[in-house]
Here is the input.
Amino acid sequence: MKEIVLRQMKERGITIEGIVEIVFDLQKPYHPSLNKENCREAVNAVLDKREVQHAILTGLALDIMAEKDLLPQPILQIIKEDESLYGIDEILAIAITNIYGTIGITSFGYLDKMKIGLIGKLDSRKGSVNTFADDIVAAIASAAAAKIAHSLKGGSES
Amino acid sequence: MKEIVLRQMKERGITIEGIVEIVFDLQKPYHPSLNKENCREAVNAVLDKREVQHAILTGLALDIMAEKDLLPQPILQIIKEDESLYGIDEILAIAITNIYGTIGITSFGYLDKMKIGLIGKLDSRKGSVNTFADDIVAAIASAAAAKIAHSLKGGSES
Amino acid sequence: MKEIVLRQMKERGITIEGIVEIVFDLQKPYHPSLNKENCREAVNAVLDKREVQHAILTGLALDIMAEKDLLPQPILQIIKEDESLYGIDEILAIAITNIYGTIGITSFGYLDKMKIGLIGKLDSRKGSVNTFADDIVAAIASAAAAKIAHSLKGGSES
Amino acid sequence: MKEIVLRQMKERGITIEGIVEIVFDLQKPYHPSLNKENCREAVNAVLDKREVQHAILTGLALDIMAEKDLLPQPILQIIKEDESLYGIDEILAIAITNIYGTIGITSFGYLDKMKIGLIGKLDSRKGSVNTFADDIVAAIASAAAAKIAHSLKGGSES
Here is the structure.
């Protein structure tokens, strides 16, 4: 299943390396000894979780269906225009973030607002619908950052 | 917008009256003077909320896309089979339930497990995909029940 | 840390065995080969999680402070009377339930409404404040049930 | 009840004006015609909600109990030190933020990370425990900003 999720992510312009960069920039100030390999492991652990996979597949399917004009109206237009009051993209993202506890919510909000790295690239890609994709990237990065914070502290995650 | 939401719900077999019955059965034991008109008003107030409308439209669109085999695999099969570990249907439902505060979560869980009234009918309809529809009904009923509990207590809702 | 959490739970009348009974009754119909040892392992895994421990310690502290009349008013009275519209007990519980994904929410709502086993005993204990304790038990049991559902299905949890 | 909540907030250094400043700075870029009176109305509407009041009273009670060394260990130390992995302060905050839908989560995360205005002041106040207070301020401001976004768009809130 994870293979399929990774392939669908890649087809939508989402790479593990792009997410690793965000996690590294986010957590480096708090953990000076952190390296990208630690971040890659954390991102991979997040992507192993079944509910994360389901949220990703669902969000990307909605982006794809919207891009192909296959969704019924008015939800088609709401998703295509990434309407700021839509809210459902954030809801799926929070389901991902929660996997390692609530502390990931703060990073998610920050990343979603600042559109750092890959998140900003997805958000501004012309001709392509990335209403869910950018929030999914921010959410995976936040969950991975939470996992790192928990494991560097010692003890069981979340 | 609400008109469109109500029409799409009806096309999927979801009527306001079906939801009103559930709310009435749920809250009657706690509020003996409750009548169906109170329940109808509460259900209508829930359906006035923008984020509720977005959650309903998104969930029903996923059911429809799955029924028409338009979604990519493997999410198509997961949604068609209403796989018990999918989880995203509950996530959308909780976004609806939260509109009047967390107390609605208890009713939602109870209704989702007991499959009362319209919820059970949707859950067992052959040939039709209602993976999101049954949770949406349970969530609207729970939010309406929470609204009634708050307003009968007096003071501001939630 | 877990030792301390277990001791504080016990002092408030919450035993692992009491929670195991609830999980077993909840999941047995779906997994005929399930035994109590599987349930005990799942409950222990839930109690290993840091955010679960924090939610338990915070909830029990509020119960204890309320029982000793140490909280300021009006929150003292709201917690002592287990006011049905309080909502914060459910909020802490959901943080526990979410640890293995959203599917635990349904069991939580059901257990919270039906007051099964230890949950009902805590809810009706005279002279003792268990506003948070009963929801905490329902939440731990629901999270453990979700963990069992995920692991019997195979693949990674949640 | 609202009077009591406002008085307890003030005693902990939280004023409506301090929150209004944050909301204004947050939303002004998106709504050039916004004035502080609009923000004050939105903050007041958030504070009218029962579940918001309960979350505030509970969080402030925990700060006060911790400041007076009345909580049992180890939760006393965790709250006094505002341990970054605690998580329960964010959980209470999200319950506030959700009142006007999920879109408030992004602002909450941003404010919680950037410690803008009153939030930063509370976070760094010596001798006083403000583990919950700063998140409560960020959450009220985010909920008010979400309310403004919904009402300026027209139609029903959230």
